[in-house]
Amino acid sequence: MDLSNRSRLSVLSASILLAFALAGASLRNVDAATKPMQSAVHTPDTKSARTEDNNAAALLQNYRHVEVASVSDAIEQLLGRRMYLSHKMQALFPARFVGFAVTVRMEKQDNHDSHAVDGMLEAIDQGKRDSVYVMSVEDGADIAGMGGLMGTAMEARDFAGAIIDGAVRDTAYLKKIGFPVYSTGVAPSTLVGHYRCAGTNVAVVIDGVEIHPGDIIAADHDGVVIVPRDHAADVLKLAQQLDFKEHSMYPLIEKTKSILEAVKQFGRL
Questions:
Q1: Do 119 and 208 lie in a common domain?
Q2: If you count Cβ atoms within 10 Å of the first and of the last residue's Cβ in the chain, which end, N or C, has fewer?
Q3: Residues of the chain whose pLDDT is less than 70?
Q4: What CA–CA distance (Å, rounded) separates 135 from 258?
Q5: Residues 153, 108 share a domain
Q6: How many domains is the chain partitioned into structurally?
Q7: Does 125 share its domain with 205?
Q8: Cα 174 to Cα 147: distance, rounded to the nearest angstrom
């Protein structure tokens, strides 16, 4: 090969190497430019959702350590209204739970529609951990709003409990699996064929108390109270203070044998 040919090959090789180098730099620049953009699109949403979940979990955990009576008093003092359910709402067995309301409204309507109650089942399948199933059943005193099958599904999905403005059935099985339910009574009946799901995750009224999806439901041996989600932090803070005062009063009453002295000192009854 003569010198001129070798020169031409050297120039050609250099050109090819330069082209590859420029292409690689271009690809690195594109990659560097797109990665921050992808991070900006996805990371904040994920982080925000994770923070919200953590805050919700912490809120529930704190509510688990205060008594329902103190929560009820705190709501009355802060909001000036009753947000507890009356004596008509009874526990299937002694239970204590806290969770976020998943609401279902059932309207009385005789029908032959096999899908008329699908909504109440879908609400369970879409429910998350620490949900409380809250069902309003029109004229439901003698109608079982739920039984063992629905209770099993809720238990499997880690629901905290259920509040049924109506009756409940399959009570032996619900007790067996330990799924807590508050209802207005017990009946062997069914709502299938007699009711239609009128809405899920909508506002419902039970015992004169309006309950919205996402509200906090707190239940213990004293009954059930509903905490409006927008006021949950303020209610919790006051409930904790009321709890502390009451628990501090017990030893003082035992020591002084005077409840008047304890009330005077702590301003709590």
A1: yes
A2: N
A3: 1-44, 46-49
A4: 44
A5: yes
A6: 2
A7: yes
A8: 7
